[in-house]
Write a structure and sequence with these properties.
- By secondary structure, the chain is mainly α.
- The protein is 72% helix and 0% strand.
- The chain is built from 11 helices and no strands.
- It has helices at residues 6-18, 25-34, 40-50, 53-59, 63-76, 82-87, 97-110, 112-134, 138-145, 149-158, 166-178.
- Helix 9 (138-145) crosses helix 11.
- The protein is elongated.
- It starts with 5 loop residues before the first helix and ends with a helix.
Length: 180
């Protein structure tokens, strides 16, 4: 699984939140001030990351949004790499909660491969315990679930976490729990 860049991730968030595919700063700023206030914070983060802060500020006409942007920009200073800021353990920059939650969400998306691997490892341990306790063969598991025999054998016997998806490791564990 590829890790997202901050710019790619915030772009995807903007498209999702706006319900469209346009990244036209003028249109997005108008939407944020009229009908979609949830765009305000990610729009500033996008502008900072792409170097379009001056353009964004030129489109803002609501004073409360301009004040929010000024406050966040004062805290961030000349930080232009929000991805690095989001991934750092430093608490030197304390953004308002509305902005900070996007940095936290990015960090979560960035760390997803490790989180998924840990989840699969925990599922494998539990599945292996249940399999030994209940005396279920690997063949019974892959036949019941319609999974690839080689992948299930490698996963169950040797803990080869890369052989099954998180979804399949969950299915194996649920299947073993359901057995009497």
């Amino acid at each position: 699984m590829r890790r997202p860049t901050f710019e790619g991730w915030i772009t995807k968030e903007l498209r999702y939140l706006s319900g469209g595919s346009s990244l036209n700063l003028r249109k997005l700023t108008a939407l944020s001030q009229d009908s979609l206030p949830r765009l305000v914070e990610p729009l500033l983060l996008y502008a900072i990351q792409t170097g379009k802060v001056d353009a964004l500020l030129s489109f803002v006409w609501r004073e409360e949004i301009r004040a929010s942007y000024s406050n966040a920009l004062a805290i961030l200073g000349d930080c232009s790499d929000l991805g690095t800021l989001a991934l750092s353990d430093s608490n030197s920059v304390v953004l308002p909660r509305e902005y900070g939650k996007y940095l936290t969400s990015y960090r979560t998306a960035y760390n997803k491969p490790e989180t998924d691997a840990e989840s699969k490892r925990m599922r494998w341990e539990r599945s292996r315990d249940l399999q030994l306790k209940k005396g279920v063969s690997n063949a019974a598991i892959y036949n019941a679930l319609g999974l690839n025999p080689g992948n299930v054998n490698a996963y169950m016997k040797h803990g080869a976490l890369d052989k099954v998806s998180l979804q399949n490791s969950t299915a194996i564990m649920k299947y073993l729990y359901a057995l009497d």
